[in-house]
Design goal:
Layout (H helix, E strand, L loop, with lengths): L6 E5 L6 H12 L2 E3 L2 H9 L5 H20 L5 E3 L3 H12 L4 H8 L5 E5 L17 H14 L4 E4 L3 H17 L1
Parallel strand pairs: 1-3, 1-4, 2-3, 4-5
Length: 175
């Protein structure tokens, strides 16, 4: 599947500013946002989720992403992608999921912005791990290195964080 738009995925631990950053970057670059499907899915469930739910989330995230990418020629900023589901499954259940990994292989090529957990953790009914953010960040970094992804770590608060992310996108666009 050939991509017309440059794709950037924001990945990282919960409460590390992925959604805010995606929206800011899309606004700055005149791009589109692929929202996080899991939020809608889990809000509708209103109970505990199981490993099979993560596979459903991954499938639906990929469908949503492909639709938005196909409708846009401008940059696309993904407020999560299948890598997030893979890492989350590995962290939560202490094992990999081959079906989710196959879906990851179906994603269109992209560059990654890995958000560092240097922001204040914000409570949210869907967030589970305020004390494990650095461990989750490290798992993301290991995963990105393992797949050979082109990525940048985004740190800082407020305007500094956005400026760092804009600079990272500009660098990644050149690659």
């Amino acid at each position: 599947m050939e991509s017309r738009a440059k794709i950037f995925a924001c990945v990282g631990p919960e409460s590390s500013g992925k959604t805010t950053l995606c929206n800011q970057l899309a606004h700055h670059f005149g791009g589109a946002v692929v929202p996080e499907f899991s939020r809608e899915y889990l809000n509708n469930r209103q109970d505990k989720y199981e490993p099979y739910d993560l596979l459903t989330i991954a499938k639906k995230q990929l469908e949503l992403e492909n639709r938005i990418i196909s409708e846009n020629d401008q940059p696309v900023f993904c407020d999560t992608d299948i890598l997030v589901v893979m890492v989350w499954h590995q962290f939560k259940y202490r094992k990999r999921n081959k079906e989710i990994e196959k879906l990851f292989d179906l994603q269109q090529p992209r560059k990654y912005l890995l958000t560092y957990p240097d922001l204040k953790w914000e409570p949210d009914p869907l967030r589970e791990n305020p004390n494990d953010l650095l461990a989750i960040f490290r798992l993301f970094e290991i995963s990105l290195k393992t797949i050979g992804a082109d990525y940048r770590v985004i740190k800082g608060h407020d305007e500094i964080r956005l400026t760092n992310a804009i600079e990272a996108v500009n660098q990644l666009k050149l690659n």
